[in-house]
């Protein structure tokens, strides 16, 4: 029978050796657990990488997919491999995520831009397009409205009525038909005609805008580089800039290389605008009034306000002149009476 006072177990803190041994054991157990977790994470990541690579090359079997179990080649993968090594991450183009092209409705003015954006996307991600039909079908997937949607529907239905033969054997054939259907007609003729009119001249536009349009027209007109192309570039350029470029003594561009004229014209335009900004700043500085400098010891003069002016009394106006009295009517004169008196003889007395 135990007594009422039970003996408490000994606190490990009272035994330093036992406490240290417990801590070492705990640390070892945690390290082993973390090592196991790290190995499992690396194996899973390696399996995911293989799965993604197989998906990119379209060689994934139907039952393939990432699992949490041990991969088939896990024995060849060391558990201590560096997760930041080149084998664990893909680099370069595999990490690119280019912007997808916009949906196309068949408008001719947008056809060239659409096919260019598709070509750019496929050139940045070549592994995603292993064959010609994949490229064609991918472009058709963005033709969703108007004439473009009807064209895509006809192309996709074509193999059904031709024993599985695709409508276009190569992507080049598809692009040729696309240009004929959805790009502006007679681009070469229109561009050549534009070069014969002042419509392509620089005018009030900037040099960069003029150069961009000129390069597009030269490409559409299929003008070869040479004297004729340089002549047309000079003819449409701003006469002031053209004269400065033509009068360069050292480093003048060749009359057979239009790209040299383009580079020098841009440089001259930049220098001209920079000089105009400088002259404008200098003119503003010269026209500004000089600041008033006052010595610290000189007291500032106080300008008193002018006294209020007294109101000027108006000059008295002269009284109005009295009206002149009219003469009374005269007595009528009897002319015959005077004549009669003159005829009477005068008697002297």
From TrEMBL:
Positions of region (Disordered): 59-108, 284-349
Pfam family, one: Retrotrans_gag
Domain of life: Eukaryota
Domain Retrotransposon gag: 164-238
InterPro entries hit by this protein: Retrotrans_gag_dom, RTL1-rel
PANTHER family given in the database record: LDOC1 RELATED (PTHR15503), TRANSPOSON TY3-I GAG POLYPROTEIN (PTHR15503:SF22)
Protein name: Retrotransposon gag domain-containing protein
Organism of origin: Lyophyllum shimeji
């Amino acid at each position: 029978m135990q007594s009422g006072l039970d003996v408490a177990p000994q606190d490990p803190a009272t035994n330093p050796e036992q406490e240290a041994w417990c801590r070492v054991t705990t640390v070892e157990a945690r390290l082993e657990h973390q090592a196991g977790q790290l190995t499992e994470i690396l194996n899973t990541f390696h399996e995911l990488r293989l799965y993604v690579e197989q998906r990119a090359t379209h060689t994934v079997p139907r039952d393939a997919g990432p699992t949490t179990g041990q991969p088939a080649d896990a024995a060849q993968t060391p558990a201590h491999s560096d997760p930041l090594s080149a084998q664990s991450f893909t680099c370069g183009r595999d990490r690119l995520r280019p912007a997808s092209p916009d949906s196309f409705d068949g408008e001719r003015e947008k056809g060239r831009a659409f096919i260019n954006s598709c070509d750019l996307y496929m050139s940045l991600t070549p592994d995603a397009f292993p064959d010609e039909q994949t490229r064609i079908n991918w472009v058709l997937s963005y033709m969703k409205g108007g004439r473009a949607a009807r064209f895509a529907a006809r192309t996709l239905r074509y193999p059904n009525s031709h024993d599985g033969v695709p409508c276009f054997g190569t992507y080049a054939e598809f692009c040729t038909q696309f240009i004929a259907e959805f790009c502006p007609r007679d681009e070469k003729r229109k561009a050549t005609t534009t070069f014969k009119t002042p419509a392509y001249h620089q005018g009030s536009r900037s040099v960069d805008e003029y150069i961009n349009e000129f390069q597009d027209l030269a490409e559409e007109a299929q003008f070869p580089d040479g004297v004729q192309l340089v002549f047309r570039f000079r003819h449409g350029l701003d006469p002031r800039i053209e004269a400065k470029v033509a009068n360069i003594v050292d480093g003048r561009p060749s009359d057979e290389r239009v790209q040299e004229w383009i580079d020098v014209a841009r440089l001259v335009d930049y220098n001209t605008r920079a000089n105009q900004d400088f002259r404008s700043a200098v003119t503003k500085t010269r026209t500004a009034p000089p600041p008033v400098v006052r010595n610290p010891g000189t007291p500032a003069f106080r300008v008193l306000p002018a006294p209020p002016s007294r109101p000027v009394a108006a000059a008295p106006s002269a009284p109005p002149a009295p009206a002149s009295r009219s003469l009374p009517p005269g007595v009528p004169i009897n002319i015959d009476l005077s004549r009669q008196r003159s005829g009477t003889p005068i008697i002297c007395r």
